[in-house]
Amino acid sequence: MGTRVEVAKMGEDAITFAALISQLSVVVILVSALSSYASIVSSFFNEKLNKTMEILFSSPLSESEILLGKLLSAVFFSLLSWGFAFASLFFLIQYLHLKALGSIWHPTLYFIIITVFVPFSMMMFSISIGLVMSVKIKSSELINLMSLPLVLTPIIISFASAKLGLNRTFQIYLLLGICSLVASLIIAMLGKRVINRLAFITN
Fold first, then answer.
1. For 142-197, what is each residue's pLDDT tens digit?
2. SS3 for 68-131, per residue?
3. Which among 1, 58, 97, 124 is placed 20 to 30 Å from 202, CA to CA?
4. DSSP state of 61
5. pLDDT surpassing 80 at residue 20
6. Can you say how many angstroms the Cα of residue 85 is from the centroid of all Cα atoms in its chain?
7. Rounded distance, CA 19 to CA 116, Å?
8. C-alpha distances in angstroms, 121 versus 3, 105, 113, 115, 155?
9. Residue 18 to residue 36: CA distance in whole angstroms
């Protein structure tokens, strides 16, 4: 977080500052993952369930254009959600640092990993898994249940961070980001086999 002199100068604010970086940063991950999953599910699964995708596929737009447009809108909404969560946390940290030390806080590698890399990789994973789930699953309860791992994983890491220590927690978050990125690429490649016009038309 800073030198011992800076920590001593911040006093009680040092605890709040450390909590903002180590704990509330997890909120950025949760917002990114859940907003991505919710946007892709509402865009595909709900339309398939209500049989409105059939209307879209009967329009002059091609199948690729329809799917790409929906994916881009989900990505855009996810980026807005991430941007709001990130900016709120970042400016709150800056305000506290300026108030306590009178200087601008420079983000650490830990902060960048946990608020930028991991959220973006989780965002890609959520969109990929949400798209495939929208095609394969017909139950709204089950598709909502699939969002639980997206929520529980960062929360469990956050609670375990007190015992794991900063370095180990950093490594776990980095591993989570890499695994999410790799998984999203694998799902995207395999998803081409199940994502097509017929998959979105219910009987």
1. 777 878 888 888 888 877 877 877 788 888 889 989 988 888 888 777 666 656 55
2. HHHHHHHHHHHHHHHHHHHHHHHHHHHHHHHHHHCCCCCCCHHHHHHHHHHHHHHHHHHHHHHH
3. 124
4. S
5. no
6. 11
7. 18
8. 31, 25, 10, 11, 16
9. 28
